[in-house]
Structure formats: C-alpha cells, structure tokens
Amino acid sequence: MTVIALLGPCLRILDNPALYHALGQASNRGGSVIALVVEDPTQRRPGAAFTWWTRKSLPLLRSQLERLHVPLLCLQASYPAVAKVLSQQELIEKVHVNRRWGGTTAEQDASFAQILEQAHIAVQTYTAHTVHEPWDVKTGQGGYYRVYTPFSKKLLSIQPRLLDEPAPQAAGSADGDVEALVHALHASDAVHVLDWDRPAEPYDPAWAKKFPWKPGAEQAAHVLRTFLDDLLPDYQTGRDLPYEKATSSLSPYLAHGEISPHRVLYETRKARSHFRSSQNKAAVASADTFERELFWREFNYHLLYHEPDLAERNHNPRFDSFPWSWPAKATQLQQTRQAAAQPSDSESAALEARAALECWKSGHTGIPLVDAGMRQLWETGWMHNRVRMVVASLLTKNLRIHWRVGEAWFWDTLVDADPASNPGNWQWVAGTGADAAPFFRIFHPARQADRFDEHCAYVRAWVPELRI
Ligand SMILES: Cc1cc2nc3c(=O)[nH]c(=O)nc-3n(C[C@H](O)[C@H](O)[C@H](O)COP(=O)(O)OP(=O)(O)OC[C@H]3O[C@@H](n4cnc5c(N)ncnc54)[C@H](O)[C@@H]3O)c2cc1C
C-alpha cells in the first residue's frame, strides 16, 4: 500500500500535515510514502529569484526525506493531470495534500480530488501555509475582512491550531512503487518529471551569484532562533531602519514553506511570556509588533482566498478606470522607431513610462533611497519593508505606472515573492487594496530617508557613487 503526500507550498519535514498524516497512515498499515512537489503550469509561473531558491531547497528536502525512506518526485503538471496518473496506480490508497491558494487553484484542486475519488482513492487536505483556515475568520455578518485591524483583533480571539506534531517517523521502503509511478508519470504527455531535487546540477545563474541566502528548513530554524534570541527584544525600535539588521529575514523561508507560520507564531508567543515574566516591557511590545506583522501575512492570504485574482484585479473597483500609465513593450518601441513618424501622445506617454520604469528597475532614478532599494533587490533578491513601500509609492503615485507592473517586477526578483503578500502590499501602497494607504498618501522618498536613514548608511551601502 502506498500513500502520497502532496507537499504543496511546504518544503519542510516538521509541521507538515500532509507528510505527517501520510507517514502515520503508512506506518499503521505497513505501507510506504511517496512525496510529490508539483509546479503547476496552469497557475502563475514562479519568478526567477523564487525559482533560484526552490532549486537550492529541493535537494536539501530530498535528503531529509530520504532519512525517512520517503522518495521525492518533482513534477511539472496540472493537478488534474497528476491525479489522472495517480488514479491508475493500484497500490495508492490515499493522497494527503497541503492546500494552496490563489489563481484557479480552487477549481483545479476540486477536479484533482474528483478524479481520485472516482478511482476510490481518498483525498485529505490540510491548511499548512497559514496559521488559520481562511474561512474560519469571519466578520459578525459572516463575510470576510477587508480591513486589517478588526481582522487582527479577530485573530487574537481565535486559538490558532499550532502544529506541534512530533517529528515524523520513517516509513517502509517505497522502491518498487516509485519505479512504477515514475514509469507512469513519464508515460503521460501531460506530466514532466523534473530533476530539481538532484544536487548534481548547481543552479546559480549569473544574476544570482551575489545572493547572500542559504535556503533550506535547517537554516530557517537557525534564522528563527537567532532572531528570537538576538533581535526580537528590539524589533519595535529597529524594524523600520533599513541599514540595521533588525528584522527576522524569515520571509523567503516562510514563502517557500521551509518553516511553518505556526512555529514562528508559537515561538514568538513563548518568547513574549518570557519577556513578561522578566518584566521587559519594551521586549513585550516588540513581540506584539512582530506578531502583528505575521498577521499581515495571514490577512493577505485571507484576501487571496476570497479574491483569488488579487494579482490581476483592483480590490477596489473604483480604480478600474484610473488612468494608469502602461510602459510600452520593447516591440512597440522598435515599431515606433522604425516608422520614424512622430509618436502619438499615448505612444509618447508609453515610451516615457517605459524609460522611467527602466530607471526604476535598475536603480537609476537619481533618488537615492529608491535607487538603493532597487539595487538591494537586484543584488540580494530581497528589500527592506520600509524601502519596498517607498519604491512602490514612487512607481504608482509619482510615475503613475500601474501597480501590476511593479508587482510583476517584484514577483520576478524577490526570493520571498508571495502570491498573497506581493499583490496585497502593492495594492495597499497603490491605494487600490484592502485597508489601503489613501490615494493622497505618498511616501516622500527624501523625507523617508531623513527619518529612517538619517546618516545615509543604507544609501551609501547600495549607491556607492554618491559621495554623501
Ligand atoms: C510593495 C511590497 C511588496 C511586498 N512583497 C512581499 C512578498 O512578495 N512576500 C513577502 O513575504 N512579503 C512582501 N512584502 C512585505 C514585507 O516587505 C516583507 O514580508 C518583509 O520585508 C520581509 O522581511 P522580514 O522577514 O525580515 O520581515 P519581518 O519584519 O521580520 O516580519 C516577519 C514576517 O511577517 C510577515 N510580514 C511582515 N510585513 C508584512 C507585510 N507588510 N505583509 C505581509 N506579511 C508581512 C512576513 O512573512 C515576514 O517574514 C511586501 C511589501 C511591500 C510594501
């Protein structure tokens, strides 16, 4: 008997309900477990920096799973295509799935379950990527929250499900079953078996050479521990200063599911009770603030669940007719040049927007804080939150370029690119989002620099040609 664990967005062993329940079932019944990671081409394609991370993480996950006798298969296929192959495998008894959100995943996942259930293979799904079930958090009227503060208050009143499951036990060997499944997967035209879990092929594209990150669940646990011990007590005072190492740096680990949000919340609350008993009020306030940041992540997933097209559509439809600029595409540019005719007003605006966008992306706007942020993003795959808000405000409110253009650049360049938090925050800054910064609130880059980078330490680090 074989049990499948479809890991979804969770590249970890601990606090992984699909894996945990698959192993439990297999060990009770003397069966084996096969783990699947599926990149689904029917959904938004992961960005380049995110993929760089995934390709470093999967070989690590594979060797951890091997210790549990669980082989890992990495596939590129729609969920229904995977279900069709699984449904033809006689030995498979049940599929345990960590849920995913956004895009058309709800429809795809329903069809996945239907195909398997028709073949008498049971499917069990779990929420593993957020602390709360998105549908558990409801307003008094039974709807969903569009404003953060009441949402976060509501979270405080709901006891989170903390995944304190014991470390999973090894399963029986799955050798023969894997071979049969791999054979069937290769035989399917709709499924590609990827070699992303193989460590032999280092994946270090030139643009990512300087990335300072060490992916993997082990490192995630280390990053959390270091943050709790060294940085959490002063989080509240330091978190807005981009030159300080004051925030947790957990976002890419959370985005890849290498650490569970449950674990981060649980450990934060434990640290807070310790601060309380030692009457360290400032540290208690810091832990409260950090918890609220974790709730922003929950809030964005809450929105994504209810608005799966969050990356494509204004949350607030009043902005649908707003005259955003859309930068001209490269081909459009060429055509205009070849025609050697005077561009129309709208073509000129699109060309201007394109030139401005290129300056923004490459960190050559001439605005020090913005350039520093965009260069930090390019060189490290990450940008400090305060600076993310400033660069996004410049793009959407000063250049009036559509937030989707900036969101797409972040999606491609952030190692923590997240289907909920990226569009959620872009919409928040642009003013189109839930509980958003109002349209008249513009982050003034020079004033922000005065307040949060008083001695220009951050700007100097990323824009060395400036002699300030
Ligand atoms: C325009 C824009 C785009 C963003 N895109 C992303 C994204 O794609 N992925 C992403 O994880 N975060 C995104 N953020 C939120 C935030 O900038 C990052 O989560 C944060 O900088 C990560 O650093 P950290 O882990 O050190 O954060 P910490 O300050 O240590 O916070 C701890 C955790 O709380 C969560 N968090 C903190 N702030 C936010 C927030 N505003 N919204 C949602 N979750 C939050 C993150 O999971 C973070 O890891 C974006 C913010 C803006 C303004």
TrEMBL record:
FAD binds at Y235, T247, S248, S249, L250, S251, F290, D416, A417, D418. It holds the Pfam family FAD_binding_7. The keyword Flavoprotein applies. Binds 1 FAD per subunit. The keyword Flavoprotein applies. Belongs to the DNA photolyase class-1 family. Residues 1-131 form the Photolyase/cryptochrome alpha/beta domain. PANTHER family: CRYPTOCHROME, CRYPTOCHROME CIRCADIAN CLOCK 5 ISOFORM X1. It comes from Malassezia caprae. Keywords: Chromophore, FAD, Flavoprotein. Its cofactor is FAD. InterPro entries: Crypto/Photolyase_FAD-like_sf, Crypto/Photolyase_N_sf, Cryptochr/Photolyase_FAD-bd, Cryptochrome/DNA_photolyase_1, DNA_photolyase_1_CS_C, DNA_photolyase_N, Rossmann-like_a/b/a_fold. This is Photolyase/cryptochrome alpha/beta domain-containing protein. It comes from the Eukaryota. Signal peptide: none annotated. Gene3D superfamilies: 1.25.40.80, DNA Cyclobutane Dipyrimidine Photolyase, subunit A, domain 3, HUPs. One of its GO terms (biological process) is response to light stimulus. PROSITE patterns: DNA_PHOTOLYASES_1_1, PHR_CRY_ALPHA_BETA. The record marks W324, W403, W426 as: Electron transfer via tryptophanyl radical. Coiled coil: none annotated.
